[in-house]
Amino acid sequence: MDVFVSADEAFMDKGVKEGVILPATRLDLVSNRVVVIVPADSPLSMDSLASLAQPGVKRIAFGNPAMPNAKYAEMAIKAAGLWGQLQPKFVLCATVVQSLNYVAQGDVDAGFVFATDAATAPGKVKVAFTVPVREPIVYPVAEVAKAPHPQLAEAFIAYLLSPDGQAIFHHYGFLPPPGAR
Question: Per DSSP, what are the bridge partners of residue 61?
Fold first, then answer.
């Protein structure tokens, strides 16, 4: 492996701390958003975390608490003071894709996913609202410390950050990193 991209800055920080990531090569690649989705045909009206507490919302797909999506969602729910009300409704999912599928199939009333995941299921799910997070959700990229092909790693990272590379990310729903033009 030559390059590492993470949906969680803490994972990248850990890699730097453990010496497996070259810190001088670390850059912000893209950003994303956590959203609450509902089945495309859902009659429920939701526009905030508080709306998930309404009686009509019985089951909420919630990712593995160790995964980035669930970490961001948990922080937002706790900051809103709603953890105690919402946690009993959670259907724990191994992955964000499982959360997406549960919502798309109508097995749950709502679910937390990244906006980029929601974009993969047009016509099956709709975004109810964006979850408010304190900090932007940034995906860093960096070269691995013992990269077998360091020149290729540098070139690949440069491509990912180029207008062409960023256009591909944009096509799949990612946003530019904070501070990018």
Answer: 91, 111
**Fold (CATH) for 34-130:** D-Maltodextrin-Binding Protein; domain 2 (3.40.190)
CATH 3.40.50.720 fits 3-31+136-171, yes or no: no
C-beta separation of 162 from 155 below 8 A:
no
Element (H, E) at 71: helix 68-79
C-alpha of 98 from chain center: 13
Identity of the amino acid at 141? V
What tokens does 51 get? 């709306």
40-48 own/partner pairs: CB under 8 Å, 24+ apart = 40/123, 40/124, 40/125, 40/126, 41/106, 42/109, 42/110, 42/126, 44/109, 44/110, 44/128, 46/110, 46/128, 46/129, 47/128, 47/129, 48/129
> Distance between CA 40 and CA 125 in Å, rounded?
4
Domain ranges across the chain: 3-31+136-171, 34-130
Per-residue pLDDT tens for 68-79?
999 999 999 999
Q: What's the pLDDT at 135?
A: 87
Measured at the CA of 111, the angle between CA 168 and CA 42, to 5 degrees, comes to 100
Considering the entire predicted model, what is its pTM?
0.89
Integer Cα distance of 63 and 74 in angstroms? 10
